[in-house]
TrEMBL record:
It is found in: Gas vesicle. It comes from Streptomyces auratus AGR0001. This is Gas vesicle protein K. GO terms for biological process: gas vesicle organization. Belongs to the gas vesicle GvpK family.
């Protein structure tokens, strides 16, 4: 295995973990919005933050020659790591 491939694989692993955390944060934010726990300003701020995070993830994937779909790991009988809505 060459250095470039090792670097790409490491970037893929790190971005997979970051994407998993981003999706978990997004689901938690949606739950809080649906519960009505947040002010309109907080809802707006969370929405903007989540959009910026998704855009940044896309940029990072582009920089490393990856697509968001490439980050999803097949866990065999458990299914995929990153569910896509």
């Amino acid at each position: 295995m060459d250095r470039d491939q090792v670097g790409r694989d490491l970037a893929s692993l790190v971005l997979t973990v970051v994407e998993l955390l981003r999706q978990l944060m997004e689901r938690q934010a949606i739950r809080r919005v649906e519960q009505g726990d947040l002010s309109d300003e907080q809802v707006e701020r969370i929405g903007e933050t989540l959009m910026h995070l998704e855009a940044r993830m896309t940029e990072l994937c582009d920089q490393h020659g990856l697509r968001l779909e490439d980050l999803n790991l097949d866990l065999g009988p458990l299914g995929s790591l990153l569910p896509r809505d």
